[in-house]
Amino acid sequence: MSKNIRESDDASLDNAVLSLLAGHVSIRKFRQEPVSAEQLAAIIGAAQMASTSSNVQAYSVIAVTDPALKSELADLAGNQAYVAECPVFLVWCADLYRLREAAKPHLSGAATYEDSAENFIIATVDTALAAQNAAVAAESLGLGIVYIGGIRSKIAEVSERLGLPELVYPLFGMCVGYPDQTPGLRPRLPLPAVLHHNRYDAEETVRQVQAYDSTMSDYLRKRTGGAKDTPWSAIMAGRLAEPIRLHMKDFLEGKGFMRR
Amino acid sequence: MSKNIRESDDASLDNAVLSLLAGHVSIRKFRQEPVSAEQLAAIIGAAQMASTSSNVQAYSVIAVTDPALKSELADLAGNQAYVAECPVFLVWCADLYRLREAAKPHLSGAATYEDSAENFIIATVDTALAAQNAAVAAESLGLGIVYIGGIRSKIAEVSERLGLPELVYPLFGMCVGYPDQTPGLRPRLPLPAVLHHNRYDAEETVRQVQAYDSTMSDYLRKRTGGAKDTPWSAIMAGRLAEPIRLHMKDFLEGKGFMRR
């Protein structure tokens, strides 16, 4: 234990924010009650206060409330009905278009926007940090959310429906609305599986999976009344062996990302 | 205004969580006071409760407290002294290694981990969502944080020092400690610059930059006693014209990411 990590018995590790974060569950069933314009502004305002790389703020959010459009996106996301049923479906987009356009008047000669994997990562991370603040903000208002990576399954069609220009790509969607279900917490990996000290511990992180496999088998067994108990690592193996969304690299290059 | 976004005058948009999120500032000067092991566990525990794509939990965190190692990382991040000065420097890594190793016993024949841009995005997003929860949790405990993208400037060296295996890459660092400064809030883009309704509004998002340019010029002028007032879009143009970290694509491919 390093001297910079002191032992402590203080009981100040319990507060309303930590409780909210500890209670996160994804919500896939929503009440009909709408989300107000003020709530939406508060949620996106909270998102905007997240950290951003050198203040580039390289993201945009499309708030989809049009029922026909929500239904289309629900289909494109792989028939996920809750995308149509939630009152507001947020599409979080990594966005370097605004930046490039805003910069144009200041650039002269051959100077222009330069594509790079680094810029792709900056925009993607900016978007995710903002979205997670939005998730926390929404939950603090009594709303529920679920991230929808499924919009990447038909990413070209989703982009076309939303009118996304070059240098903008939809990273994920997020259903927002009042929860009409109370799912139980899903256990996470043991802390030592993800937290390393001063050096990556490859043996320990893999060893910890055994304990988690047993935790998740118990969890599944309870949730399904004994019908399922596949260990986590076996479920993950199934995912790895059937790669999905192999169109992503071509799509991103087509949008001006990751060419170099 | 869609019927799914109702007008409302309810005053319930003020709570402790929203206030915390609204008050975020990056901290680059820390008191000597250490962070306790319990605080660190609470912060990473909160991170783990963030959403994760199909429960892959594709991230690891290296808590760096060793003074010599922190100093090295501070240098590698571009001589950022606060990396050495903060009591705990967290390195957030996108991690598909644990997943691949855990899956191995369940895969037979030619089945193996399949690289894809999609998997790269999943791991990167999982990492960022967890990290932002950690940032919020830390701030709820009275700690301050700053994200350090600078570790990507010498990403190969950082990876080597931390012993990161294939399929793991350091996405960003995060200084954590008790603040020894009280920076003012940095204004963000106007809400209509980032929030679109049902369709991306390319003209509006760029038009909104003009208002922000003037906001940021005022902000800079006040912060520097009149010495600086470069508009945001001009600063961004400078960034775009001098691309950084062009080694990222090769590095990621070398680590097993983004080959297809």
TrEMBL record, chains A, B:
The keyword Chloroplast does not apply. Its EC number is 1.5.1.38. Transmembrane segments: none annotated. The keyword Oxidoreductase applies. GO terms for molecular function: FMN reductase (NADPH) activity. Belongs to the flavin oxidoreductase frp family. PANTHER family: OXYGEN-INSENSITIVE NADPH NITROREDUCTASE. This is FMN reductase (NADPH). It comes from Paenibacillus forsythiae.
